[in-house]
Amino acid sequence: MGSYTQNDAVRYFIGDAINKPAIHHESFEQLWETKWKAPCKMGVYPFMFGAYKDVEPVAQAIIKAGLKEPYDWDEYAGFFFPKAEELAAAAKTAEEQGNKEMACELYLRSSALYRVARFPTPRSQLQLQAWELGKKVFYAGASLMEHPIAEVLIPHSSGLASEGKTIPANFLQPPHASSTNPCPVLIIFTGLDGYRTELAVWQRGWLDKGVATIVVEIPGTGDSPADPTDPTSPDREWSSLLDWVRDTKTLDHTKVIIWGFSTGGYYSLRAAHTHADRLLGSISLGGGAHHMFDRAWLDKVNKLEYPFDLAGALAHKFGYHGADKLEEFIREAPKFSLVNDGTLEKKCCRMLLVNGSHDEIFPVDDLFVALEHGSPKEARVVKGKKHMGEPESFTVILSWIHKLLGLDGDIRSQLVQLPSRIKH
Predict the structure, then answer these.
(1) Domain 18-145: which topology?
(2) Where in the chain is the domain with CATH 1.20.1440?
(3) How far apart are CA 397 and CA 354, in angstroms?
(4) Where in the sequence is the signal peptide annotated (predicted)?
(5) Please, which residues bridge with residue 38 across strands?
């Protein structure tokens, strides 16, 4: 087993791009104009369930205030609260008047504002409040959907005494699912900044295909009970989760697939090896494995593709809280490498790795590291695209899942459901 040392000279596929700061780090104005305005108009990441008409005035207020890095996270979050509160109140009124469709939309639009307020990960009191309020309005809206998304509290039966006792997750299963007709399961591992309240956008599409979905957060994010500083804590969390799937008779525990998004892809790659016998397949979309923890990488990423300070957000996610802990995280990060701990040499379930060739969040080099170790795996690199290789990557992954589960192959009907569609 090779071991990475901090003195290694490392070169990455993105080449000189690692030394070219992105313009959106200059100010929030540049972030909005060059990176966020377009996806906000489309109603896609990071504005799932959102409306441009809600976000644009908030963005202009932040621009007028001159916010830029390093952000005061309470100050930043505070700009989103008034509109989020207004929408939540309007949603409640609509619900009381029996207008479920309007109430559902307004609750979800409120959740989108709270989501961006706590982006990328709650690091201040107001951002923590935004996370709690965002969950409240999200589940209020989700309960009014045609097929309501439920929050389930899965017992963390394999957890340590020092860890949380439950794994909060989104759960949606087809109406026909029963003990005599159990359905396959897709478990979605969320990312560094996209939690279960956002990746819920995928759930209805899979229900239409007869697949149950569970959306769960990774250690150090959302409400995950796992110890973020312990590289083995996810193994316990997934054991608890898979035990719950096994014991839920409407679910077919022999047809379980994991799909990890971004940082979640690191965990889906790990799970493919630690729980190989319990999974039909696993997908890492934009996930890392080894070089994502290089000092040479972490020293640069705060100024690259990610909207904010990626190294700082990752440090917080892995349990190193506070700006003064960043250096400690970078120094100790190699302990999380799936090469250094031997994970990639273990038995692996069927595995699909997908990323963009020019990813500046987690180096595409890690995809090749995974291919070079252990069992043979399947992979697709989307040429010329950055993190996660969107949107082409979604077509690759959905087609792979459809073939693995023997579904109808009509992936377009799922993809068209992802962008927000505002009626009110």
Answers:
(1) de novo design (two linked rop proteins) (1.20.1440)
(2) 18-145
(3) 8
(4) none
(5) none
- Any catalytic annotation for residue 176? no
Q: Angle CA(150)–CA(284)–CA(303) in degrees, nearest 5?
A: 100
Annotated catalytic residue within 193, 309, 359, 365: 359
Selecting among 253, 309, 387, 420, the annotated active-site residue is 387
How far apart, in whole angstroms, are the C-alpha atoms of residue 305 and residue 135? 28
Q: What is the pLDDT along the chain (424 residues), one digit of tens a residue?
A: 344 344 333 589 999 999 999 999 999 999 999 999 999 999 999 999 999 999 999 999 999 999 999 999 999 999 999 999 999 999 999 999 999 999 999 999 999 999 999 999 999 999 999 999 999 999 999 999 999 999 999 999 999 999 999 999 999 999 999 999 999 999 999 999 999 999 999 999 999 999 999 999 999 999 999 999 999 999 999 999 999 999 999 999 999 999 999 999 999 999 999 999 999 999 999 999 999 999 999 999 999 999 999 999 999 999 999 989 999 999 999 999 999 999 999 999 999 999 999 999 999 999 999 999 999 999 999 999 999 999 999 999 999 999 999 999 999 999 999 999 999 9
Q: For 149-424, give the CATH class.
A: alpha beta
Choose the catalytic residue: 111, 262, 284, 393.
Answer: 262
**Residue 167: closest CA among 114, 229, 219:** 219
Q: Is 341 a catalytic residue?
A: no
pTM of the model: 0.96
Query: Where exactly does CATH 3.40.50.1820 map onto the chain?
Result: 149-424
